[in-house]
Amino acid sequence: MKFLLDFFPIALFFIVYKTMGLYAAIYAMIGATALQMLIARYQTGKFENVHLITFALLVVLGGVTLALRDPAFLMWKVSVLYVVFALVLIGSMWIGKKPLLERMLGKELDLHTSVWQQMSWIWGVGFVGIAFVNAYYVKLALAARALLFASTDLDPKIELTELECATTTMQDLCLAAQHTEESWVNFKLFGTMGLTFILIVITVIMISKFTKEEEKS
């Protein structure tokens, strides 16, 4: 249930992008993230730091994107956010008495400190991997977008989803720009969700292995 709640804003962003375009999707995601925070607050009695960091970055970088009509700021937010998460997870092994994962889940799972450290490294490196894959899609999308507007007299503030490429002077460039932006949106939902699910599976396997070893001893 928590996994679905965490990806609710991204899923809504995807749906609104497909139907109404990028800038409407940003407004939808900001609203969905605020709702996500309130639901978590109602369920746990406090705001989660992950949600607060995500919301702050979204408001700042999403707001700049809306003000300048430049999607680069929002696109890079994904990489920035996951790098921040990675640094926090890995850094927590040297800051404080316990790794962050142990502080968050220690009441539910009784694991050896070395296991918490291994999991911190796995999730930290995994988040960095997600950040790099996102950066790849962002570079493709922004390069195709820049080439399109440099080669035509189109207004660079226009929504790519609004363009009828068949009527433009550079149809291939227009299609490439639309395709690469859509590929980034697809990765934002399916890529991040899929890679996160892989990290969850690895974590479950590690916990199961440690639990079996404990039972044998």
Mind explaining what this structure looks like?
This protein has 217 residues and is mainly α. The protein has one domain. 80% of the residues lie in helices and 0% in strands. α4 (72-91) packs antiparallel against α6 (113-151). The longest helix is centred in the last third of the chain and has 46 residues, at 171-216. It starts with a helix and ends with a helix.
Quick rundown:
The chain has 217 residues and is mostly helical. The protein has seven helices and no strands.
Based on helices, strands and strand pairing, what is the structural class?
Answer: mainly alpha
> What count of helical segments does DSSP give?
7
Order of helices and strands: HHHHHHH
- Total number of distinct structural domains: 1
The major sheet is characterized as:
none
| Shape by Cα distribution | elongated
Taking the alpha carbons of the first and last residues, their distance comes to 34 Å
Number of strands: 0
Strand content: under 5%
Mean pLDDT comes to: 90
